[in-house]
Amino acid sequence: MSELHKFLFDGLPVRGMVVRLTDAWQEILRRRHSNPNAEAYPEPVRDMLGEMVAAAALMQSSIRFDGALVLQVFGDGPVKVAVVEVQHDLSLRATAKVVGDLPPGAQLSDLVNANNQGRCAITLDPKAKFPGQQPYQGVVPMFDDRGEKIERLSEVLEHYMLQSEQLDTTLVLAADDRVAAGLLIQRLPVQGERNLEGQGKTPGLDGVVINQANEDEIGLNEHYNRISLLAASLQREELLTLDVDTILRRLFWEEQVLRLAPQDADIGPRFACTCSRARVGNMIRSLGSEEAESIIAERGDIEVGCDFCGQYYWFDAIDAAQLFTDAGDQAPGSSAVQ
Ligand SMILES: [Zn+2]
Predict the structure, then answer these.
(1) Alpha carbon of 118 to those of 80, 101, 112, 159: distances in Å?
(2) How far is the CA of 276 from the centre of ligand 1 (A)?
(3) Rounded to the nearest whole angstrom, what is the distance from the C-alpha of residue 245 to the centroid of ligand 1?
(4) Cβ(253)–Cβ(228) below 8 Å
(5) Most CB atoms closer than 10 Å: which of 59, 266, 268, 304?
(6) Overall CATH class of domain 277-329
(7) CA 173/CA 18 separation, integer angstroms
């Protein structure tokens, strides 16, 4: 069963999480395999997407955003786009588009940053939007501070958490055909009554006030640095094969770890797709009736497949006519199939 475990280090400003996606990740892969119009992911793409899914679940759980956290990589190599969406309740879905062949032994940069144009975007799309509100988006480069291409997705996301959330973060990620897993260690921002009154404070995404005192602490907290080093020693094989209790015991046996109740089953990370016939209908409406009629004249009907779950939706001439006569009744906020 897929599970997410949170823990604290007693008396220290450090927290952690482990996510292990088994059935949720296998369901994403199974749906891809059984979609006649999509090819199975080549192994390096599969592993990258699995790491993205694990990371997105950890990030959503870390910032507890009331809406969808969307992690996307826009690639300029064989992977054109890879996208993971995690809702507030940890339901999630993912897909990637691959064009052409991968070079042998492809690394992250060969997949998505072959021509230096790859980028990673994190979008926070609120559930309830006020009119005209745009989702918040942060874009992270896929180069490190010395201008070298980053070969680990975890490093890209650590940069994001530091730059956008002012949070020292250590991430270890791994995926194969059965498991997508991740470990996150984070320094808790400095908080205090005095600090709350301070100048230059900015609200963090989960309402935590981040202030000058916190910025001064970045990279300097000895407890965080020690625990971060322990976390970074976790090997890919260990993360993929060991249960959470064993991982935490092996890494942090000298620390006082306080475990919170694990989230699994109905409250844990799980596969779910948000596509629907109504949303596809809205998308066809946005094409306009002329375009819709010309597709039907050419092909007999409009067929739209969901890349995330493999579900297909068909609209014939009568369905389409109905869409445009009912145009005034469309549900708000559902203008796209995704
Ligand atoms: Zn779907």
Answers:
(1) 9, 17, 5, 15
(2) 7
(3) 34
(4) no
(5) 59
(6) alpha beta
(7) 10
Tally of residues, the chain: 338
**Distance from Cα 27 to the centre of ligand 1, integer Å:** 12
All residues at 6 or more sequence positions from 232 whose CB lies less than 8 Å from its CB, including other chains: 170, 172
pLDDT averaged per 10 residues in sequence order, the chain, 338 residues: 97 96 98 92 97 97 93 97 97 96 94 95 90 88 93 95 88 98 92 42 48 70 95 98 97 97 95 95 93 93 94 93 73 46
Distance 224 CA to ligand 1 centre (A): 40
**For residues 140 and 144, what is the distance between their CA atoms, to the nearest angstrom?**
10
Q: Where in the chain is the domain with CATH 3.55.30.10?
A: 3-271
CATH of span 3-271: 3.55.30.10
Q: What is the pTM of this model?
A: 0.88
CA 255 to chain centre: 29
Please name the residues in contact with 220: beta carbons below 8 A apart, sequence gap of 6 or more: none
